[in-house]
Amino acid sequence: MKDRFWIALLFSMDFITAGTSWGLFFYIRQVYIERKSFHIDHNFWLGVLLLPIFWLLFYLLQGTYHEIRRLFRLKVLTLSLAATFFGTLVLFFTLLLDDQVRSYQNYYQLTIWLFIIHLSLTSLGRLIFTTILINYIKAAGRGFKTLIVGGNDRAIEIYQELLAAPKMINDFVGFIQVNGRDNLLSVHLPHLGKVRDIDTVLNTLGVEEVIIAIESSDHDRLQNIISRIDDGKIRIKVLPDMYSILAGSIEMTNIYGALLIEINPDVMPFWQRTIKRMIDIIFSALALVCLLPVFIFSAIAVKLSSPGAVFYLQDRVGKGGKSFKIIKFRTMYLDAESSGPQLSTSGDPRITPIGRFMRKTRLDEFPQFFNVLMGQMSLVGPRPERQFYIDQIIEIEPQYIHLTRVRPGITSWGQVKFGYAENVDQMLQRMKFDLIYMKNRSLALDLKIMFYTLIIVFKAQGK
Questions:
Q1: Domain boundaries in the chain?
Q2: Does domain 144-263 have CATH number 3.40.50.720?
Q3: Which end of the chain has the lower number of beta carbons within 10 A, N or C?
């Protein structure tokens, strides 16, 4: 609710400043560049009322309104500069370039004036907005609800450093005890339990930030705690070791406060995530139309190969741990899992002859374009697994839970590199590729994975 209010406020301010900047640009153009008397016509009103919609869509794509309560002044100026530069270029080629002017110098003047006016008004409005927002958050009880994991001397030091910072925006709700001795922080904050209670604490108190005050050298314990709380929404900060400092992995947003590493929830920028989803929808819709003959041929082949339905629905775990029905062409005989969940193997007698061909060419995966359109999957992402196998994987490697932070994919780096897994050990090997993908997500990497998937399809080299 708090975010919606601030988004609506900034949305309204951006609309007003965009309309005002175009009106002022229109005036300067007529009076100072074209040397005419100022008069208002339908072009003036079209620009004042419609162009702000263009700018707002541009800002949405850029991610300006995403996590709005975490805006700060430098970020606001950076976003405004980037959006104004590219937006002005678009308007120049779509609106200004077709105008009749006395000389080409007028084109340059118009573009420069539009850039300066829009940037100045937008930045001024946003700086005022951000200042009001920061002052609101700094007020007692309005900051980001923060939980400290650990109660030793180092935890007390971090707490006092943040508390003394001039721009303190944390609202500490308490601390979690890691072992039997680190309860010194109880003098300053409520003791909310031990690590085993952390899930309940996070859900009950609506925690937005977690500071893990144990040394980074304690890798096993640190990894276990992060795996339990990392849902892609909660900001996680840990103590840096010397390697992290030298590697430059410390993210700084201001010059005050404690020295902490922020675990980046998603390396893919917001604008790339938006474009990725648009590509998912457009590509899947086109694929379902263009591949209709392939679907018909595959459906007939499946139906003739053995008794049973054409499509096979199976429960898989998707984004945020939510279950959904994955759609595939049936490649096995009926009752293939009558004795319980089983992974397919090389030469598996449960697979039909046509099913074997479809698995090699990935044709059995094509119906999942419907899952993509429904928002359950993406074209590229970690392959979704069944809860039965996820439970086994997590017992060995808790980091698997990171893969559920994003939409699962029809194809993945692990699928391209490793193919279908025949047992849990192979699932763990494939998982490593998908974890690397998560740490390097980008549109360029997605396109590369899709390209190699097409090669597998055309060469029928799938496992």
A1: 2-138, 144-263, 270-459
A2: yes
A3: N
Coil, strand or helix at 93 = helix
SS3 356: helix
Note whether 151 and 191 are within 8 A (CB).
Answer: yes
Q: What is the pTM of this model?
A: 0.78
pLDDT band at 101 (very low <50, low <70, confident <90, very high): low
H helices within 153-269, ranges in order?
153-164, 198-205, 219-229, 242-247
Token code pair at residue 365: 């995966």
Task: Please state the three-class secondary structure of 270-323 as a single string.
Answer: HHHHHHHHHHHHHHHHHHHHHCHHHHHHHHHHHHHHCCCCCEEEEEEECHHHCE
Nearest to 130 by CA among 57, 68, 85, 80: 68
Read off the pLDDT of residues 304-354 as tens digits, 9 standing for 90 and up. 888 889 999 999 999 988 999 999 999 988 887 777 777 777 778 888 989
| DSSP assigned state of 30 | I
> What's the mean pLDDT in 376-394?
91
